[in-house]
Amino acid sequence: MSEFNKQLSELYKSLATSQKNIKGDPHKGDSLSNFRGKKGVSDVGIPLSPKAAKRKQTNRAGYHYPQHLQNINERRRRDAMARHGITNIEDPFNKNFKPAQPAARSNHSASWRPPMEDTPTVKRKNIYYDEWTAPSKPEQVTYILPPAPRKQPAYKAKMVKRDSKLQFKNKLEEAIYNHPCYKKQFK
User: Fold this and answer.
1) Hey, is 40 helix, strand or coil?
2) What is the pLDDT of residues 69-104, one digit of tens each?
3) pTM score of the predicted model
């Protein structure tokens, strides 16, 4: 039994060394860690080592959209392909596309309708009000300004009429009265 254990330990040692040799030298990016504590990845999520890149790829492969989002994406893809006339996903520019031959016309339909008439389209009228509630057209109004009030003089000279001659209280009042701008105030 001890011989069997001895052989088993030798086999384990050889397997361990072979596994170590398979792993190869550790990459310097595996020892670096970002601010979140993830090893081998930069702060913005770019893998710095092959091991981190492989881990990121397998994580992405394991993620599946929820079914309703996947259905929405597939419907949008089908609509876009129909809109642009793409029939084959591998040939998006339709380089290998062969147009189908037009089918022979037959007039054996179950229901018959007369062809649609080509009537000119009438420009749509934007009516925001009913005709009876629509605002009436504005009337023309003429505005008349009231007469401008007469200006009161800023200063009135104090004078007294005696014997059809003007008499002033003092020489200053007489000088103000005889000034040319003073007489313009009363016009």
Assistant:
1) coil
2) 888 989 999 998 888 888 888 877 777 766 666 666
3) 0.26
For 58-140, where are the E strands, in sequence order? none
111/116 Cα distance (integer angstroms): 15
Cα angle 65, 67, 70 (rounded to 5 degrees) comes to 65
CA distance 30 to 14: 26
Q: How far is the C-alpha of 170 from the C-alpha of 159, rounded, in Å? A: 9
Reading the block at residue 136, the tokens are: 């009436």
Short-list 25, 55, 23, 24, CA closest to 39: 55
Whole-angstrom Cα distance, residue 93 to residue 99? 14
Nearest to 42 by CA among 32, 31, 56: 32
- 10 Å Cβ neighbour count for 183? 11
Give residue-wise pLDDT tens across range 25-51: 778 888 888 778 888 888 888 888 888
Look at residue 101 and tell me if it is in a domain.
no
104, part of any domain:
no
Q: What is the DSSP string of 19-38?
A: HHHHH-SPPHHHH-B-TT--
Cα(170)–Cα(39) distance, integer angstroms: 108
Domain of residue 183 covers: 154-187
Q: How many domains does the chain have?
A: 2
Q: Which of 57, 73, 88 is the last residue of a domain?
A: 88
